[in-house]
Design goal:
Elements (H helix, E strand, L loop, with lengths): L5 E4 L5 H12 L3 E5 L4 H15 L3 E4 L6 H15 L4 E4 L14 H29 L2 E6 L12 H20 L5 E8 L5 H14 L3 H9 L11 H11 L11 E4 L7
Parallel strand pairs: 1-2, 1-4, 2-3, 4-5, 5-6, 6-7
Helix pairs in contact: 1-2, 1-8, 3-4, 4-5, 6-7
């Protein structure tokens, strides 16, 4: 379905981003992965995508804190593959803390990585998409783009911002063959979710099992974590011709969380 397309997925050395990168590769797209981690492990991940799916896969070490590096990542991908047809803004970090104790540097970093990085990447990718008359921008938002939770001020603010950015860009390019949508997962069992458990335990005075049962899965009527494959499948669908009329949408995949 995506043969001869190129997908850039930020924050894709693990979790949802890696799931999306592999799902696009399974459909024939060349991919650029990006993110943090051990260099040898990243190389194994990159090489596995090429071996498993017979596509080309590059790695970009671009730091999502820096707009010029993000623009460089898009430029490098266009030079390497000829185009950037699909952009998934997935990079994200989290910090859990009461607002009056929230570290300023954590606020700044979360806004930069979860929100501003999407702006920089979209800004760099749009000219090529406009020139070709086709493009898919998918922003990984969160159920927290639609509802709030205590102790996550920066994350909730950033994800609400992603929703607004998604709608605005979708309107700007609606007549140019480009769709822009946000996927809003609930709790997906990823390194990002796992890493926030200790801070949530501290902020709420709970055990690990209580955080999982009474905070995370309590929010989701299905009482199950969303899977990486479910989110990746959603992303692939948004790149299909069937989804070409879907743009500016903020779409939950959250086990019923935001239906409440």
């Amino acid at each position: 379905m995506l043969a001869n397309k190129t997908a850039v997925v930020t924050g894709s050395t693990s979790g949802i981003g890696l799931g999306c990168a592999r799902a696009f590769a399974a459909q024939g797209a060349n991919v650029v992965i990006n993110g943090l981690g051990d260099a040898d492990e990243i190389e194994q991940t990159r090489a596995a995508i090429e071996a498993d799916f017979g596509v080309r896969c590059n790695y970009s070490p671009a730091n999502m804190l820096h707009g010029e590096e993000i623009a460089g990542m898009i430029s490098d991908a266009e030079k390497a593959f000829g185009s950037v047809d699909i952009l998934v803004n997935n990079a994200g970090i989290q910090h859990v803390s009461p607002l009056d104790e929230f570290p300023i540097e954590k606020w700044d970093a979360i806004i930069a990585i979860n929100l501003s990085s999407a702006f920089h990447a979209i800004r760099a990718a749009l000219p090529g998409m406009k020139e070709r008359g086709w493009g898919r921008v998918i922003n990984t938002a969160s159920a927290h783009a639609l509802v709030a939770s205590p102790y996550k001020a920066a994350y909730v603010a950033a994800k609400h911002g992603v929703a607004g950015l998604t709608k605005t860009v979708a309107l700007e390019v609606a007549e140019q063959g480009i769709t822009v949508n946000a996927i809003c997962p609930g709790y997906v069992w990823t390194p990002l979710v796992e890493a926030q458990i200790p801070d949530t335990m501290k902020a709420r005075n709970m055990t690990e099992e209580e955080v999982k049962k009474d905070v995370m899965l309590k929010a989701q009527p299905t009482k199950e974590f969303v899977t990486v494959d479910q989110v990746a499948g959603y992303a692939v669908f948004l790149c299909s011709d069937t989804a070409s009329a879907i743009t500016g949408s903020i779409m939950p995949i959250d086990g019923g969380w935001t239906a409440q």
